[in-house]
Write a structure and sequence with these properties.
- 2 copies of one chain form a homodimer.
- Chain A is of the alpha+beta class.
- In chain A, the strands form 2 sheets. Chain A has a 3-stranded mixed sheet.
- In chain A, α2 crosses α3.
- Chain A is globular.
- The N and C termini of chain A lie far apart (52 Å).
- β5 of chain A pairs antiparallel with β5 of chain B, so a sheet runs across the interface.
- The structure holds a DNA duplex.
Chain lengths: 152, 152
DNA sequence: ATATTATTGAAAATCGTTTTCAATAAGAGC
DNA sequence: GCTCTTATTGAAAACGATTTTCAATAATAT
């Protein structure tokens, strides 16, 4: 079973009905290489399903988020972008040039937490880590641009 | 020189004028034990300077943020809360019960970054870490509440 | 003391998001 | 397949947070 059907099944088990707007929204989310804002999702959905309403996008996103299927990706300027959720010890790694976002395992943070707990007295029970950088593709593009500049 | 005057000096060096609304806003930010939303800052400022306008609060916050003096603190539901900025390798540790937020040093993340770089091909150049937990005060309160419940 | 110009606060505009509501369509039962 | 129930839909209106506009004010340089 592909991911899209998996999500639909989870929705159904939660008592939701499977509708074409929902199919389209899930499709857009799953196939995007980067986090998207609600309005971007709306625009992409409109291409495949012109009649869709922005309100339906918001309502579906709310459902998906509360079911833990999607998650906010935070950036300096805000936190309105959404992506399929990370699970377990996974965290996002965001390309600051093109936005391409992937997940990585961050399971070696235990010692940091222990150290922070003993130095602050806080009881740490949740953490939130995101890395920013340049993806392989954008590194190559930069090289191309640089060599162009060199020759100019 | 106290922190408040330090901030005022930085503003002045950037070509800003020192006004009483700005003094009050800075005072509120520096003396809060937790991150505040713009409207909360506005309300607190009004106590000391009733004539102040919400617009001035927004404008001053924008200045302070762009000068790197304050920073957004992100939470599950949003990222509209502001605190004096962390510098260097510092990160926020937020109490999920009362909001009390402190800074801790997170300088042992180098090995994680190296590992992620070699496994993903991304070039990591910025990271973002926040911890959530229970502060010492709220741990004590929980104990009190629990023992009350036990005796009931 | 004066002139210059950044800053102010109120009102209006704008943006993203939520609510309201009547019409529609998904899925359960027959 | 047909009917009934009710979740879902899209449009319009409402809403809250933030930004813009603008004339009046006040901080600083001279």
């Amino acid at each position: 079973m592909n991911r899209s059907n998996h999500w639909l099944k989870i929705l159904q088990e939660d008592g939701c009905r499977i509708t074409s707007p929902r199919r389209v929204i899930i499709d857009v989310l799953i196939n995007s290489p980067r986090a998207l804002q609600p309005t971007e999702i709306y625009a992409l959905c409109k291409e495949k399903h012109p009649g869709i309403g922005l309100v339906t996008v918001y309502r579906t996103l709310e459902r998906l988020e509360s079911l833990g299927l999607i998650q906010r990706v935070h950036r300096e300027d805000g936190c309105h972008m959404l992506m399929p959720a990370a699970d377990g010890h996974e965290h996002y790694l965001v390309c600051t040039t093109c936005g391409r976002t992937i997940l990585f395992e961050g399971d070696d943070l235990g010692t940091l937490f222990t150290r922070v707990e003993s130095s602050t007295g806080y009881q740490v029970n949740e953490h939130w880590l995101q890395l920013f950088g340049t993806c392989p593709g954008c590194q190559d593009n930069n090289l191309l641009v640089e060599s162009k500049v060199d020759h100019a």
